[in-house]
Design brief:
Distance between the termini: 64 Å
Shape: globular
Oligomer: single chain
Structural class: mainly alpha
Helix content: over 70%
C-alpha cells in the first residue's frame, strides 16, 4: 500500500510541475514589459527563502559544511541558468508610458533552460537519496539556484533597460 501511495505522490508532484511549466511557457512566449522597479523582487524573495530554509536545515540536519557547499554550488549553477535564459531572451524598447522598462520575450529555449533547472533539483534528490543530505538542505540549494538565476536575469534586464533608455 505504501508503494502505491509513493507512486501517487510522485505522479501528483509531476502533474503540478507540468501545470506550472505549461503556465510559465505561455507567459514566457509573450512579450512582457519588465520595469526597473520590479527587477529585484524575485531574487530577493529566493535569497530570503534560502536563508530561512538554510537556517531550518541547520536546526534539523546540522551539517553546516554540506549546506554551505550545496548553496554555493547551486548559486553558481543558478548564474549559469540565468545566463542561458538571457542568451535566448530578446529585448526591445518598452512603450514610453512604461519607462524605465524594457520589452522582453522568452523563447522555447528559455523554457528548456528553466525546465532543466527544475530537473536538476529532482535529479539531485534522486542521486543524493541515502547519502546523508537532508531534504531541507536540498530545498535551500534549490532556492539558492533560483536566487542566482533570477539575480543574473535581473542584472541583465537592468542593463537592457539602461541601454534602451539611452538609445530612446
Amino acid at each position: 500500500m505504501s508503494g502505491n501511495s509513493a507512486e501517487t505522490t510522485t505522479l501528483l508532484t509531476v502533474g503540478i510541475v507540468a501545470l506550472i511549466v505549461l503556465r510559465f511557457a505561455f507567459r514566457e512566449l509573450r512579450p512582457q514589459v519588465v520595469r526597473a522597479r520590479t527587477l529585484w523582487g524575485r531574487p530577493g524573495l529566493f535569497a530570503i527563502l534560502t536563508l530561512l530554509v538554510g537556517y531550518e536545515s541547520l536546526q534539523r540536519e546540522p551539517q553546516p559544511l554540506v549546506l554551505l557547499l550545496s548553496v554555493a554550488v547551486s548559486v553558481v549553477i543558478g548564474l549559469i541558468v540565468g545566463a542561458g535564459v538571457i542568451r535566448f531572451t530578446t529585448f526591445a524598447p518598452a512603450p514610453k508610458a512604461a519607462q524605465p522598462a524594457v520589452l522582453a520575450q522568452g523563447s522555447w529555449q528559455t523554457i528548456v533552460v528553466w525546465v532543466f533547472a527544475i530537473a536538476l533539483r529532482f535529479g539531485a534528490r534522486g542521486l543524493l537519496r541515502g547519502e546523508g543530505i537532508g531534504e531541507l538542505t536540498l530545498n535551500a540549494a534549490l532556492f539558492a539556484l533560483m536566487a542566482g538565476a533570477f539575480a543574473f536575469v535581473a542584472f541583465s534586464f537592468g542593463r537592457a533597460i539602461r541601454v534602451y533608455r539611452v538609445s530612446a
